[in-house]
Structure formats: C-alpha cells, structure tokens
Amino acid sequence: MDYSLNGKVALVTGGTKGIGKAIADALRDMGAQVIVIARTEPEEALKEQHFIAADLTEAGTAEGISKKVIEKYGRIDIIINNAGANLSPGGGFSVLEDEHWINDWQLNFLSVVRINKAFLPAMIAQKNGVIINVSTNAAKQPIWEMTMSYSSAKAALNAYSKALASELGPHGIRVNVVSPGVVETPLMLEFIDNMAKASGTSREEAFKKVMETVNVPLNRMAEPEEVARLVAFLVSDNATYITGTNYSVDGGALPTM
C-alpha cells in the first residue's frame, strides 16, 4: 500500500495541538508540504511545516489564507478541517445564550465552509483533491448535559460534507468525515477540568462521569495518533474510491453501526 504524499500540499486547521498536530505530523512524515493554521503560535517550533496565525471565526480570513498558500505553493491537494471545540457550558438549553450558539457554529461549522469555499476553485482547477472534515460522534449521539450547541453545529457539518461530496465528485475531489469519540487532547482535559470545577468534584470523578456517559467499550480515551492514522489512509491513494462517508473513531461507543 502506498502512503506517499510526496509533492502534495496539505492544509491542517487547528494543527498545533491534539488531533490536529498528530495529523499534521503524520502528513509531513508521508512527504507532504504541510501548512498549519491556528490562532496562536505553537509552544515549540514546527518541524518542516509552514505556520499561519489566523482566527477562522472571522469572515474574510479564509480568503487571505488561500491567497497566501496558492501564491507560495501554486496548488492545494489536501484540506483537513480540524479546528473546533466545545465552547459552551454544560447544563442544557436553559444555560445556553445566543452567544454560545453563535460561537459554536462559527468555529465548528462556518469556519469549515469558509476554508473550503476559499480553496475549492484551485482544487477544482486541478481536477483532484481530498477534504477531510473532522466532526464528532456527539453529532450523532448528542449529550444534552455537555454538548448541545456543539453537537448541533457538528451535525450540520456532517450534512454539509455529504452534500459537498456529491457536488465535488465529478471534479475528482473526495470529501469524507472523521468523527472521533473521546480523545486525550489538551482541549478534552480542559473540558474535564471545567466540568469538575462546575460540579465541585475532582478531575478523576469528572473523567469517570464522562466515560460512563459516553460508554466506551475499550474503556479508555483515544490517543490523537489513532485518529491521525485513519486520516492518513483517507488522504492517500489507498482510498481513491472513498467519498461521502463518515468514519467513527470512538472505541466502539456509538451504539449503532
């Protein structure tokens, strides 16, 4: 099986930490030129990767990024829309204000739409390319106490991705979704800490509640690299007939196939 990405140009949003960093490193190791987008510069210098600081929730940002990348590299082959987070407080509908819904939809849905729209003219002109939109299993199995607005934005992302795959297939462009479950990332640990603080419990008790709520048969969180390995397969030439599909990486937590 050929996992080489030599000569390919790949963009990874939210690529300085957690799942995004694992994906960016994997694509770099496969030979791709990787451009990493994040709000703030990484604590450690990126190895053989091009970093662009940007806030993707701001309208117009995506166009500026696209112009820089196409001018510098002349093409775009892979887009990994990984940037996203559960920004809102838990507790259900009564604690969610308009700003919570707007913030979650801006980051988890509209930022993806904007990046894809900005880069797709170049990808269509090439007549090939791959887009991976990183979603979450919470879009299929929302947890009202924890993920209501976040889940709704990611559910919209899933529907958008399916529609986009149908539209872009004739242009030689594949679009797939990867939906992680609970993954041991800085954002997840911060979420658990905030949950513990809000409930007046310890991190261990909050973690136990999350695992009991999600019900992971493998009984552990995923490592970011376990998600990255699936992404690496989907963007490679080993997956040239796979598009419009949503893959769960959740340790068996989703109760349906």
CATH level 4 superfamily: NAD(P)-binding Rossmann-like Domain
Structural class: alpha/beta
Output the CATH topology. Answer: Rossmann fold
Number of domains: 1
What overall form do the CA principal axes indicate? globular
Low-confidence stretches: none
User: What is the alpha-carbon Rg in Å?
Assistant: 18 Å
Classify the helix fraction into a percent range.
40-55%
The tally of strands reads 7
Count of helices?
7
Spatial sequence of strands, sheet with the most strands: 3-2-1-4-5-6-7
User: What is the name of the CATH class?
Assistant: Alpha Beta
Task: Write the H/E string, N to C.
Answer: EHEEHEHEHEHHHE
**CATH architecture assignment:** 3-Layer(aba) Sandwich
Major sheet attributes:
7 strands, parallel
**First-to-last CA distance:** 27 Å
Taken as a percent bin, the fraction of beta residues is: 5-15%
Rounded mean pLDDT score: 94
Protein name: NAD(P)-dependent dehydrogenase (Short-subunit alcohol dehydrogenase family)
Family: Belongs to the short-chain dehydrogenases/reductases (SDR) family.
Pfam families: adh_short_C2
Organism: Chryseobacterium camelliae
